[in-house]
Design brief:
Layout (H helix, E strand, L loop, with lengths): L4 E3 L1 H5 L13 H12 L5 E4 H9 L5 H13 L3 E6 L2 E6 L1 H15 L11 E7 L6 H13 L3 E4 L2 E4 L6 H4 L8 E7 L6 H8 L2 H15 L6
Parallel strand pairs: 1-2
Antiparallel strand pairs: 2-4, 3-4, 5-7, 5-8, 6-7
Helix pairs in contact: 3-4
InterPro entries: PaaX-like_central, PaaX-like_N, PaaX_trns_reg, WH-like_DNA-bd_sf
Protein name: PaaX family transcriptional regulator
Length: about 220
């Protein structure tokens, strides 16, 4: 991103204060939220020190921020740009695709899938134990795509999903099996859902969000 505008995350995010503790979130989740809100679509890179200053307000320490930036570069979610002694970080095509997908989910798609035809996508994978990073990346991508784990490398999603863009670049030919179709008896679908997805945790998260923000003048 040579010649791209450099901005301060500190000034872009502004200051948010609250007397109530924020829920503990993973630094990478916070980072993606920040990048989606303030960097996506602007062709900019952000100074590492600005990330550190901004995330300190959220209770994330400097070491965690630097580790997260390094990890995201390694996973091709951020591109590193040096300008003298200062290091800046910008989006990559991969992270832009993820964030555009998230933007579409949040602002354009409905909360409920009213067109579901009862089909499920079942994905099973098996790979060598030494492929830990690939396994981690695949699980993260499947979770983001709406899959839940039934254990032993078997994942399900309540719709027909084209998994090709999900697994692109992981070189998993011969290590995946994908099927789609309705659940047949005697499958206990409600039990399967609770096994694959943390529905109670999801509900509690929504309640906590509403308790914190669904009020006049929440800040």
């Amino acid at each position: 991103m040579t010649g791209a505008e450099r901005v301060s995350a500190h000034s872009a995010a502004g200051s948010v204060s609250s007397d109530e503790p924020s829920p503990r979130l993973r630094p990478q989740s916070l980072m993606l939220t920040y990048l989606g809100n303030y960097v996506l679509g602007r062709d900019i890179a952000v100074f590492s020190g600005s990330f550190i200053d901004t995330f300190a307000r959220l209770g994330v320490g400097e070491h965690a921020v630097r580790s997260t930036l390094t990890r995201m570069v390694r996973r091709r979610l951020l591109a590193r740009h040096r300008e003298g002694r200062r290091m800046h970080f910008g989006l990559t095509p991969r992270s832009e695709g993820i964030l555009h997908d998230g933007e579409d989910r949040v602002w354009r798609r409905g909360v409920l899938n009213t067109d579901w035809d009862g089909s499920w996508t079942v994905l099973a994978f098996s790979m060598p134990e030494s492929w830990q990073r690939v396994r981690h990346d695949l699980r993260a991508r499947l979770t983001w795509a709406g899959f839940g784990s039934l254990g032993n490398g078997t994942w399900i999603a309540p719709s027909r999903v084209d998994v090709r863009p999900i697994v692109a670049g992981l070189n998993l030919n011969g290590h995946l099996k994908v099927f789609a179709g309705p659940a047949e008896e005697p499958t206990d679908v409600p039990h399967m859902l609770r096994e694959a997805f943390d529905l109670d945790g999801l509900a509690n998260g929504y309640r906590a969000f509403l308790d914190r923000w669904d009020r006049p003048a929440p800040l």
